[in-house]
Design brief:
Layout lengths: L19 H18 L26 E6 L5 E3 L2 E2 L5 H11 L4 E6 L5 H13 L5 E5 L3
Length: 138
Amino acid sequence: MGLMKKKKKEALGELRMDSTADVAFLLLIFFIVTTIFAAEQGLTLVLPGKQKQENTVKVKQSNIATLFVQADDSVTLDGKPIVINHIMNSIQDRIYSNPKLVVLLKVHPDADYGYMVACLDELKLANATKVSLKTATK
């Protein structure tokens, strides 16, 4: 009789778990650092404190540009419809011809907040430094 060789069982590959904690820790640090750099910044508005009625300044009507965001989210500039993308150019032209121009941004309470933010962004791009915010009544 011939001798039969016993087949050896192949050893299953082992997963070394030694460096798993190190890799997880490095990934955690990476994601924490990258999310800190990607933080969004909100609008920077300097709002005045409470003032008495006697401290208010009257502005001539010719120095006021009224930008109105209506309840149906349409925007008008001095009563004429305007596309939000054209606000910057219109306001820049008006500021160039009248440096004392004050932009009055009126927003209807039922209007979408995003339209007000878009108008403020356009005014910022137009370098409008004199902007007044007002909530319109229903």
